[in-house]
Amino acid sequence: MRAEGYLLREEDLLPLSIGAALLGTGGGGNPYVGMLRARELIRRGAEVRVIPLDALNDGDWVAEVGGIGAPVVGVEKIEEGGECYRAMRAVEDAAGVKVSAVISAEIGGSNSIEPIIAAAMAGLPVVDGDGMGRAFPEVQMTTYMIYGADVSPAAIADEKGNVVVFKQVIDMFWLERFARDVAVAMGAGAGFAVAPMRGDFVKRTAVPGTVSQALEIGRTVLDARAKRQNVVERVVATTGATLFFTGKIIDILRELTGGFSRGHAIIAGTGDWTGSQARIAIQNENLVLWIDEKPAVMVPDLIMNLEIDTGEPITTEMLRYGQRVAVIGLPAHGLLKTPRALDIVGPKAFGFPELTFEPLIAREIA
Amino acid sequence: MRAEGYLLREEDLLPLSIGAALLGTGGGGNPYVGMLRARELIRRGAEVRVIPLDALNDGDWVAEVGGIGAPVVGVEKIEEGGECYRAMRAVEDAAGVKVSAVISAEIGGSNSIEPIIAAAMAGLPVVDGDGMGRAFPEVQMTTYMIYGADVSPAAIADEKGNVVVFKQVIDMFWLERFARDVAVAMGAGAGFAVAPMRGDFVKRTAVPGTVSQALEIGRTVLDARAKRQNVVERVVATTGATLFFTGKIIDILRELTGGFSRGHAIIAGTGDWTGSQARIAIQNENLVLWIDEKPAVMVPDLIMNLEIDTGEPITTEMLRYGQRVAVIGLPAHGLLKTPRALDIVGPKAFGFPELTFEPLIAREIA
To answer: Taking residues B37-56, what's their average pLDDT?
Structure first.
């Protein structure tokens, strides 16, 4: 592996977590506690280099890690910090390999930071990319899994010291089932590591550049706030997103079932959308946006809620009655929109048999 | 390990499974399918030697295996046969040891036969003993766990090829929780292997001689049937059990919750007990027997239902309205009645805070 890329600085963590919260499309968990853990490690001298996909050698082993559980639980059940690291060491043991880099399962939310903590603890670089370019609620929904990564060995670790290894698993749906059930037993929040992947496979299947993309979005938000600019407009301009709706949340249904937060939010239009109503379906993440009951954006494309005044991304567990939100949409990466990918992360896979994926068209980036 | 003991013959399997069904106190699963698997292996030439505890060397590693799940599921979800064997190999891998003998977690029901199948597949002997001298519904309820066996690594395997390893688990209650949840995900029936134990530990903590005891009980039942004797009387005489009640089942409540069969049976007295009513509480196994609402026998002592005419042991999943039963009780082994053991397998541990264990006194064996 070549020493390319850049070292993460302490001051990168806040913008990274803001950008990741946005790309999390409501999910991926709140990155705040993870950010504090990462900051502590960097302050104590840990060096984490962000390397481009190209820097991987074909034969390198790469660990994929991330938190698993219901984001809403993460608000009160504080991670210990070493969960993903211990899961990563357990898959190394089980696979009989040593990894030389860490990559995120999903860039969205806390899972942008978890690989950085594991990498800092292990003295390894983090790859600039992830398996979703956003967040999704289930284990099989990474580009790695979609394009044929080994399903086992995988491992899960909690804050108490328990480590469970999925030594041999017949397919990715079984892995999701086992991992979810153990994560629920662990209190609906745990660190997860999947089978180490070879560098050439990661280069072919990862969504590239998403750590840098999250950093860039976060820096834009912070810059706009500092300059008292309209944050939503700046985010839309930087990312090429489309503003789909503005309004006030008038109803929230959110249930914790089977280790997921499921539900919906209803938004009454304001401004240009006065008189209209939007609805967003949720399974940890925002899945589908309807405006006046017509589907406007659907998975795998990204649906993101920003607080209108501050531009703060609102994760699904933070949605509240009365919040004023801007709903923006962003096209997913092409790796998520092939027929093979849509079988796993398209609207039908999320329980909307009536919806056929209609891609959102990217706007020109300012 | 010394080559003592005796080779299991094909014709031993039927009496073994009858005796084990009785010692299962209603649980442990129906041994019939396992018996067919074991018979097939022995017919094909597998040799399984039953060795006494004394034959173990202190430094030998011993594998503890058994089925895990809800017995009622085993009636329809047929085991593939290699589940316990694969779980045993997975714990050997995880612990980095090779075992030289197999011992049962519980002699009761199908778990008398599971170690024989695993031993036959691995070419190993089976130790004459087990961790309960009966059957219990939960993982921590073995004498091994009660007296401090390592909790991890443990492993669980299903008939489809999935293998999950509990690599590091902080205590036996967490092991029960994880193993139960994964067993439920696997369809509420799977093979389980706990951390290999040293020979000296097994000699101190196993309930001795229970394979031979089950064989002896089964042979008595078959002999009594062949001679058209009263089977219940012969079983009582051979085992030192006490006949507590005879009657007709007039009500059954049985629910499958959390991977367990739970419920109760109500029995209207006949013969000497005409006018009385008995109630048996169930969690996979028979837990407490009340006669006219006064507790008569309670865990860990053994409560066993026999069909009056045939002497057939009735497992809890086979209880039916209208069956005529004899309820007999047998004292548990002393290892289950220490204060330390009663914390885990006494009536309070099973959710009867109002009951303080009153030991059943053994009758003289005829």
So the answer is: 95
Contact A77, A256 (CB under 8 A): no
Cβ-based neighbour number of residue B294 at 10 Å: 7
Q: pLDDT tens-digit profile of A16-33?
A: 999 999 999 988 777 888
pLDDT at B197: 97
pLDDT surpassing 80 at residue B260: no
Distance of CA A84 to the CA centre of its chain: 15
| Cβ–Cβ below 8 Å for A165 and B161 | no
Mapped onto helix, strand or coil, the DSSP state of residue B34 is helix
Query: Which of A160, A167, A174 comes nearest B170 by C-beta?
Result: A160
Per residue in A46-63, pLDDT tens?
999 999 999 999 999 999
Q: Under a CB-based contact definition with an 8 Å cutoff, are residues A225 and A310 in contact?
A: yes
Residue B161 CA: distances (Å) to CA of A180, B157, B192, B194: 19, 7, 13, 18
C-alpha–C-alpha distance, residues A27 and A284, integer Å = 5
The answer to whether residues B138 and B131 touch, using CB atoms and an 8 Å cutoff, is no
Q: Which phi and psi (to 5°) does residue A211 adopt?
A: -65, -45
DSSP reduced 3-state for A254: strand
Distance (Å, rounded) from C-alpha B181 to C-alpha B175? 10
With vertex at residue A141, the alpha carbon angle to CA A135 and CA A147, rounded to the nearest 5 degrees, is 125
Q: Which residue of A has its CA nearest to B177?
A: A185
Minimum mean pLDDT among A3-7, A125-129, B264-268: which range? A3-7
CA distance B199 to A317: 52
> Which of B160, B164, B174 should we substitute to test contact with A (largest number of A Cβ atoms within 10 Å)?
B164
Q: Are B72 and B317 in contact (CB under 8 A)?
A: yes
Chain B positions touching A96 (Cβ under 8 A) are none
- If you measure CA to CA, which chain A residue comes closest to B175? A162
Other Cβ atoms within 10 Å of B9 Cβ, number: 9
Q: What is the DSSP string of B108-139?
A: SGGGGTHHHHHHHHHT--EEEEESSSS--SSG
Q: Give dist(CA A43, CA A35) in Å, integer.
A: 12
pTM of the model: 0.85
How confident is residue B75, by pLDDT bands cut at 50, 70 and 90? low
Query: Contact A211/A273 with Cβ under 8 angstroms?
Result: no
Best B156, B181, B186 member to test A by mutation, with max A CBs in 10 Å, is B181
Answer whether B165 sits within 8 Å of A167, measured CB to CB.
yes
Strand, coil or helix: what is B40? helix
